[in-house]
Amino acid sequence: MVFMKKSSLIITIILIFCVLLLSIVWSHFHNSLDALDLPDTSTAETYDRHYVLIPDAENSVLWQAIYESADQEAAENNAYLELLSQDAGSSYTNADYLRILIASKVDGIILKPDGTDEVRELINEAVEAGIPVVTVLEDDSDSDRISYVGLNSYQLADTYTELSLSALDGTDGEIMILLDAESVNPIQSLAAAQLTRTIEQGKADGQDVTVSLYYLESSSDFDYEEGIRELFVNRSPLPDVLICMDEVLTECAYQALIDYNEVGSAAIIGFYYSDQILDAIEKGIIPATLVVDTAEVGTYCIDALNEYHTLGHTSSYYSVNLSLITQDNIADYLEDSMEEEE
Prior knowledge:
There is one protein chain. By secondary structure, this protein is α/β, with parallel strands linked by helices. The protein has helices at 2-36, 61-76, 94-104, 117-128, 153-168, 186-202, 221-234, 247-259, 275-282, 294-311, 330-341, and strands at 49-54, 79-83, 108-111, 133-136, 147-150, 173-180, 209-216, 241-244, 267-271, 288-292, 317-319, 322-325. Helix 8 links the parallel strand 8 (241-244) and strand 9. Helix 2 (61-76) runs parallel beside helix 10, helix 5 crosses helix 6 and helix 7 packs across helix 8. The longest helix is centred in the first third of the chain and has 35 residues, at 2-36. It starts with a helix and ends with a helix.
């Protein structure tokens, strides 16, 4: 009897100890969750579809503006748009991301294609798997993408030509097109060739205009900067006009003009804008920059995906508006920029 009483007492003590231990662990667990400040999942929203945007440069003003517009349109149509985060130093390519998204069975993909056979085949694989793909800013019409959202290539070439020849003002000179060496592809080559032809056709009778291409490495912004520095160091005189076909190239070319005291030696025709580019236009260092309507780009991308899911088809091409920022209208953009900061 004494042994049984002792056994019961030991068991009771053990049970009490276990209860106390569990209480301590449970309390610690809840305190840890509170410290993490996690969102209340009971109020989490649910969506009908999950779309993914693969940006060409996640942190650029252009792609952030496209994402914001597309995200708003997606939310209004009960869809969730994910901006694919491309960590610095990551070795993942667009082809890798496409494989991941196909395996994840997302409901739609938006990307700027690079013109490679690998990406084209993966676009086809995604569409075959029931995942519609929209190409943006650059097209790959040989793929099975459901739609292209971007600028009219003829309008783009005409605008660059008009601005470049205007900068030459009827005199002879050299126009250099700056291109991304990492993404040299049939799409980019075709655009450069078309621009070259348009300049040749648009020059004045007897005017001697040379068009050249300059390729820059692009694994990082630093590579762009180094490539443009080499141009400024090794070329004397500089080309009369530098055509920059993206936002980062425009900023790098402008900074090189400042660093090498070459302001006035070359006219930069830019693409899109940032605070730095707006400042350069206000000072008259950059004559003009082309601006794509990012609100239309983002909205049309989501509209194409939604329409395809609803009807089984959509327009194969959505043309977006192109405008210019010059000294004539720079005040409007500077005002908008200040309001956004506030």
